[in-house]
Each structure stands twice: as structure tokens, then as C-alpha cells.
Hints:
Elements: E1 9-11, E2 18-21, E3 24-27, H1 33-43, E4 53-56, E5 62-65, H2 81-98, E6 117-119, E7 128-131, E8 134-138, E9 145-147, H3 149-160, H4 169-183, H5 188-211, H6 215-222, H7 227-252
Antiparallel strand pairs: 1-2, 2-3, 3-5, 4-5, 6-9, 7-8
Helix pairs in contact: 2-3, 2-4, 3-5, 4-5, 4-7, 5-6, 5-7
Amino acid sequence: MTWPDGEGELLVGNLGGALRVGATVRRSVGPWTPAVHALLRHLAGRVPHIPEVLGFDEQGREVLSYLAGRVIDTNVELLSVGQLATVVRWTRGFHEAVADFAHPGPWRYPRLPGPTLIGHNDIAPYNICFDGEELVGVFDWDMSGPSTPLFELAFVAWNCVPMWRDIGTDLAARRLAVIASAYGGFDPRQILHAVPVRIQLMMDGILVAAAAGDQGMANLVAAGEPELDRIAVAGVVDRIPAIERCLARIGSS
């Protein structure tokens, strides 16, 4: 889609989208932008496949480098096992690189309980691009903020298994096992049980941020959130016992 004045290509997103101009992306800024830019600059050279902060344009929008690759639509297809594993391995490397980073914010994402690091908080197929099996870009860092590795993995599971729809308990269990194995240090059952908690925190945060005047969050409410996710979370809770039984079989095989 071309921007009405011909400036560039509109990159549609859930929070309002961005504009591609040549090899750059232009996005509206918020109070969280300085913290996000500090995070990206800290990660530069330490974590591959992230946007470079290039400054601001004459309209006051942030300018980031454009990351090219294929974005997977999980409404119609699943990430391959290889793609899923590379997302999680990238996440582990990101967490290692961010361990010594601190910033007072403000951050856009509501503070999650017991934070131990600054997470991306929105690692999902709509924010990732691939070249075949390999991850080549992770973008949309505006939701970054205090989090934990388990909450980050729970959000990855929600979007990349994906847990938000019923793909069958056996397949869901096997993909949760891939996440746990690729990251290390967590049992897939821990990730499974963290999913409803993590998504409930997200749903609560959407309403709080929308009420506080965050237009992007207001866009989500106008699109039917958090009610759509509430229905999906209820489905996950219903499926947890069956998924746990599948995980037990996988663990004993």
C-alpha cells in the first residue's frame, strides 16, 4: 500500500503501522522512544537482525533501518520447526546481551511482576521476518520493557506455537518442547502454565494504556481487544490438562 502523498509504503500494524521510505522505516514517537533507542543502541553489534536507530526526520518521526524478509501469517500457516527454533535461539541470545542493560524508562509496556531484564515483549511472527528457515529480522521494539525470560517465552508460545488457536494438543505439546529445548533452563510445562498469566497481564495492560491515552492501544480496543484474547485464553486453559498429558508422553519416549 502506498502512502497517500506518495512518500513511501505503508507497513500496516496492529498499533497503527509505520511507513517504509527506501531502506528506512518512519514511525511516530512516544514518551518511551528514548528508552527504546537506548536499548537498540546497547544491542547494536551484540544481537543480529535488529533495526539500527538512524535518528529523526523533519516531521519528528523516528527513523530506523528497514529489515527485509518474509513475514509468516500464522492465521494461514505455522512457523516451521526450524523457524520456531531459530526464533527461540535468537531470543536466548538477546536475553544474554541485554542482561547488563538498565534504563529507568518510561517504557510503553506495563511493568510485569518480578522483572529481571528488559524484554522485547512482542516477539511474534508479525514482528519477525525470515529468509527460508533463518530469522533475519526482529522489529517493532516499542513494547520493550521490564520482563522475565519465562514471560518472554510464554509470549513466544502464545504467538509461535501458536497457543491462541487450537492446533491440536499433541502438536502444541511438541512445539512447546521445541521452545523449551531451544532456550534451555525451562520445562515446557512451566512455559505452558505461564501463557495464561502472561496474556492476562497483556489484556489488563491494553485497557490501562488505552484509558491513559495511548492511541495504539486504543486502536487494539477498537479492533475488539482484549475480548478476543480473553476467549482465546479460556481455550488455552481448557486445553492445558490434555497438553500436559502429551508432554508427559513426549518426556517418557
